[in-house]
Amino acid sequence: MASSIRPLFAIRTASSLFGRGISRPLSTKAAASKASKGASLVLGATAAGIVGYGIYKNKNKWMTSNDALEAVESIMKSASVSAAEPPTAQPSVFSPGKDHALYLWIHLKPEANAKEVAKVCTNLQKMVDQVVAPDFRDDDDHEVLAGVGFGPNFYSQLGGKSPKDYNYAHRKGTHGDMPSSGGDVFIHAKSNQVSNLFELCQVFVRAMPKGSVAEYEDIYSFVYKFGRDMSNFIDGTENRADDEGRQAVAVDKSTGGSYVITQKWLHDLDIINSEKRKTLESWVGRDQEDSTELNRKTITSHVARMTSGNQKEAPKPVEIVRQSMPFGSNSGEHGLFFIGYAADPYNFDYMLSRMVGAGGDGHSDDIMRFSKNTKGTYWFFPGVADLAKLGSK
């Protein structure tokens, strides 16, 4: 969390390459491909050298060209195995942010047919293609990056197995509660066109088995003041800037899956607009202008709660990939929809417990003085291969 603000407030910063118009970093897939090609070239040169000689000497024994070729093949097979790519994560997990995001939170009825719901969820990418034709898939203005996750109870009904338990506990601190809201299915999608996200929500909800949905909430977010939270602090200061770094933080290497936290925070703009800047900075632990960490900050500041203490650049025991964004209207609810990805749900537990002073020093996070948490839970976004299997069970 040690982000620029709130309970893990995050996503776009000028320095993190998340802003629109800044060149996107190479994807991990492309990087892996280049590495694989590089290995092939080296091995190819090695093989050519061996075969060119016809014979070579190994441990004082002469080997024929056929023996040499067999040795090369063995090396190639070994290299092929070692260079195999890890399981693939869903598109929303560690990809850069967009101008808008959809957060679709679904509660199912007890009698909902789990298998039929799973089939709909495994067709999410086909629905994305329905909204945005594949021809426009690589067009930054039209691209939609989407993923689907499941609450622990529903995922077990589907026969899915996550490496770790991920139940979200209700928490209470000096400045308020963090309620456990539950949920069965969650869609996170990103696009520079909010209309694409609105349409994707319609397509997905209509595809759900008749009578299976008890209730749902769809929230659409936006970029505010070039990447700031409504509190006017820069968002996502501590996010890793490169694809490889974000993947390492967000994805379980053995499955390609990712644990996700979602929280709905409502900001009190009257407090934000009336408090002195220095007071707000002391609550957050950063300079409001450029997000520089304060040399002196209280143990209750957000930065201190999200790290290990209030000293300058205190160690960060855990990391997450924040993809939070502002949402709402002036006449209604407004604030920050927090969403973060991690390879281990413990990372979330550590941060949330620090925010309410649970099991530690008893200090609560000062950002809860101007923002109220009204909804929250954990999800598991299975890797692409595991997600596909759910639809075939």
Characteristic key phrases:
single chain; 393 residues; alpha+beta; 2 domains; 12 helices; 13 strands; disordered N terminus
Helix percentage range: 25-40%
Provide the number of structural domains: 2
Structural class: alpha+beta
Please count the helical segments.
12
What percentage of amino acids are in beta strands? 15-25%
Number of strands: 13
Average pLDDT, all residues: 84
Low-confidence stretches: 1-63, 75-83
Q: Please compute the radius of gyration using only Cα atoms.
A: 24 Å
Biggest sheet details: 5 strands, antiparallel
Q: Specify the overall morphology.
A: globular
How far apart lie the N and C ends? 37 Å
Order of helices and strands: HEEHEHHEHEEEHEHEHHHEEEHEH
Structure description:
This protein has 393 residues and is of the alpha+beta class. The protein folds into two domains: 6-23 and 93-390, no CATH class; 33-82. Helix content is 32%, strand content 21%. It has helices at 28-53, 65-82, 114-122, 124-131, 152-157, 194-207, 243-250, 269-274, 277-284, 302-306, 346-356, 384-390, and strands at residues 56-58, 61-63, 100-108, 144-150, 171-173, 176-178, 185-191, 213-222, 258-267, 321-322, 325-328, 334-342, 371-381. Strands 9, 10, 11, 12 and 13 form a five-stranded antiparallel β-sheet that branches. Helix 1 runs antiparallel to helix 2 (65-82) and helix 4 (124-131) crosses helix 6 (194-207). The protein is globular, with a radius of gyration of 24 Å.
